[in-house]
Records
---
Amino acid sequence: MNSHDSSLHSNSPSNSALDSVEKLHRAVSSAMSHPTEQLIQQAENSLSHTEQAVSQVIEQGNRNAVELAEELLGEEKERLSKLRSAKK
């Protein structure tokens, strides 16, 4: 995942969604590096927040932002799912 310069982002829902996906990526990466219950829970909380942010972009109707956010969200969901499976 490419890191985006948050100083270039406006406060639009599409940029908020992409910022949320980046935070989710960091949370999942931390949980994968150190799979403690606390970090996994933080990643799951971040996932919930990101899903809400992506939902707002869908409502806004910005097709490009929706596609990118959904693609990145899907990748992070897959990573988190693998982490949950490995933890069991």
---
Amino acid sequence: MNKLTLVRPDDWHLHVRHGAILKTVIAHTARQFARAIIMPNLNPPILTVEQALDYRTKILKALPLESSFNPLMTLYLTDALTPEEIKKAAESEHVHAIKLYPAGATTNSESGISDLKGIYPLLEVMEQVDLPLLIHGEVTDQNCDIFDREKEFVASSLTGIIKNFPNLRVVVEHVTTKEAVDFVLSASDKVAATITPQHVLFNRNAILAGGIRPHHYCLPIIKREHHRLALVKAATSGNPKFFLGTDSAPHLTATKENSCGCAGCYSAYGALELYIEAFEQANALDKFEGFASFFGADFYQLPRNTETITLQKQTWTVPASYRVNNETITPLKANEELNWKML
């Protein structure tokens, strides 16, 4: 197959930051996707519906003039979130979920949750108003090996959330392990997961073998090969529990390439071209449209898009960087070739 036409996809997990970075990266996403779930972990975080709507306005102003891209907003879950704000979010046409970050788990997660059981009353309200919970599923115990933090979260925390709130819609974000995949498969249809391009394309050798590659470093960290294979199997299975969420996370090159580099892979420039390589390698191009275009919209109870896009088999070289004023963002697979291109 040399050409693939599909309904325009959506990105169900996206970071776009603010200011000059926002202006650079949002055009890349809008070129490919009709909608995206926007992460709220700015500094300061997006805590209220009013703040989410203000952030949405800034995103819309940063878009190319001809763009019809629709940002879908989220709130950052903290101990200070009130039931009234949850109900207000559920009533808003622009706020579609609330994001749970364990405190200290990833970029700008310092305001996150330390005691999961302490927020159970808030989860009960979310269940009542049918507002999805998006989970960064890692423990933050410094004694836990970083490669085991997702597995431990599934065993110690996620199981309890699902058991206590069986009607709460939950997205286990950017799953990276076979254990997380198996958990989602065993759960009810209220539980789904997003999968990133880096986690289906790479195993942990991509970060560490032959030298440290900071632009492959993200959280949750890329795991062993058997975990990658489990993710590929899930993504290409046609199971509607698994759908596209890039977790594209732009950082300036200087903040990635230093002695304590930031976590995050920038994939928005060519997300579809990255994903389709994994689907082609798995001989599953026929499953790509469901994963990219249908399953996420169905889970979020939103209409499927009607416009189409086309990808063509065409070799091209990923740019070395993208300009942000006088600085740069280095994309995932910079200076490397990709084999598909969106027309």
